[in-house]
Structure formats: structure tokens, C-alpha cells
UniProtKB/TrEMBL annotation:
Keywords: Auxin signaling pathway, Membrane, Transmembrane, Transmembrane helix, Transport. GO terms for biological process: auxin polar transport; auxin-activated signaling pathway. It comes from Dillenia turbinata. May act as a component of the auxin efflux carrier. This is Auxin efflux carrier component.
Amino acid sequence: MIGWEDVYKVTVAMVPLYVALMLGYGSVRWWNIFTPDQCDAINRLVCYFTLPLFTFEFTAHIDPFKMNYLFIGADAMSKLIIVLVIAFWAKCSSKGSYCWSITSFSLCTLTNSLVVGVPLIRAMYGEKAVDLVVQSSVIQAIIWLTVLLFVLECRRANADSYLDSSIKNAQVLAVESAGKDVEANQLEIVESTGPSFWCLMKIVWLKLAMNPNSYGCVIGITWAFLANRFHFEMPSIIEGSILIMSKAGTGTAMFSMGLFMALQEKIIACGPSLTAFGMILRFIAGPAAMAIGAIAVGLHGDVLRVAIIQAALPQSITSFIFAKEYGLHAEVLSTAVIFGLIASLPVLIVYYAILGFLN
């Protein structure tokens, strides 16, 4: 049973996040230290340096030979359920769209497992349960954040290609209207329907190849396999070089979110209706899908409880950083992170009490 001491431990883990957030907010709104362009530069620092190293650091220290594959299977099944529901919604609803499908997937599935989940789950179910939360964080970094990067790059590449097409077509029209004896085969005319699938994939994979977030988790899990298979440790000079930046990952991410908040007219940038929508997806839809997936693969006891609890953890900070970098509903993700951190403790305690009645 969670006592006041356990609540205090979780609070101790969460308060520093708000300190970093308020410093970022105040540096723009109250002290005028950073300009909007400088805020974008700080977000790119987080996206391309501190977060990849943070991901590598915790991924490299797991033991992949001791992972609970039923637990991982339940997580994968819950994500599949969410993808199918979102795809059905996007196809059948007038409000459905590709962009909102990406954001909805982030809100339903991507959690802040390490910062909030570890102390909370330790207080609820002990150290063995903490191992499960770390495993889910690793899988999230290796698979689901990479999938998120992929679809965001697809969206960006598609948008850029359409923009290039519009510019080139405008140039062609200007040439034709000017007269210019130019033969048709000398004019560069694009198809108005956008790039071909293989052209789009080439652009996306090249972008991913240049994105360090694509490498952090892959190199980390590769190191984890080799280190645990052959029983050797990372040289201290390399580990120190990684830690000096990775330790700043969560703090700088929250600082960047504070900068983003300060640049908005309102703290709740997305409005009350979208805030409620985000909270429903985060604390109800995500855990419900996980419960279905966990029961389907045969999880029971504390493992089942941990699976549902970790699916109800607050929103991943990384999802906001990516949303800001790629210009997709960053205001919704920032609100989900902030309100998720505020609401998570009472919500998760309620979940813990309800799940305590399950055999």
C-alpha cells in the first residue's frame, strides 16, 4: 500500500521537472533572456544532442536477455489496437486526419516511464516491477519513438515535396506566359499529385540517417547485447563523455517546454476541449488498450497491474520535443505533459486501488 512517504518520493522526483520548466518560462516571459529564434535553437539542441545521448545511456545498461517478452508482447498488442482504432477513426470520421492520427498515437501510447514511473512503481510493487518499467522505456525508445520519427519525417518530406512542386509549376507558368521559344522537354514540370512512394521513402530514410535519435537507441541496445553476452563494461572515459550530456536530457527538455509555453498567448495553448481530449487519451484510452493486450497474452497478478499502471503514466516529454521540432500540435503535447504531471499522482493512486481488487 502507498503511504505518505511513497507519495513524497514521487513528489521529489517530479518537482525538479517543474523547476526546469519555470526557469524556461521565466527566461522568456519575465526576464526576456531569449528571442524566439534562440528558443528554437535550444529545442534543436535538446532534440539532436541531449535526448539521443539520454536514450543511449539508459538503453545501454539494460540486460536484454532477462526481458519479460510476454510483457513486451502485451505492450505491442496495445499499440496495434490503438493504431487500428485511430486508422478507423481517420477513415470514417470527418474530423479524422493523418496529422491528428500521429498526435493521437503519441497521446495514447508514449509515457514518461523513467522520471515518474520508476519511483511510483517502486513504491507500489517493488524492484521487480521497476525492471518491467525500464523494459517498456527501452522498447518505447527503440521501436515506438523511431516509428514516430518515421511518420513525422514522412509528413515533412511530403509537405516539402508539395511545396517544391508548387514552386516549380509556378516557374513553368511564368516561363510559358512570357513567350521564351522554349521546347517542352526543357521545362521542368512536376506531377501535381506529389512525389512517388519510392521517392518519398528515399527522402525519409536519408533524413532518418542524419537524425541522431535514430542511432541512440539502436547503438544502445546493441551495446547492451554485447556487454551482457561477453561480460564487459563500457570504458569510463566513454561513459563519462556520454553522461555529461545525457544527464541534462530531461532537464533541458522541460526547460525547452517552458520556453515554448512563454511564447504562447496562454499557458493552456490548445484550449480546454483539446486539453480534455488529451487527458482522456492519456489516462483512459491508453490503459484500456493495454488492459486488453495484457489479458490477451495471458498476463496476470502484479505483472498485469504494472502493465496497466505504466500505460497510465504521464505524457512523454520526448513526444513534445519531436512535436515542436516537426511543427505538429506542439501546444497539445506541451499541455498534455504539464497537466499529465499534475494529474498523474491522484489518477495512478486510483488505478492502484482499483487494480488491488484483481486477483
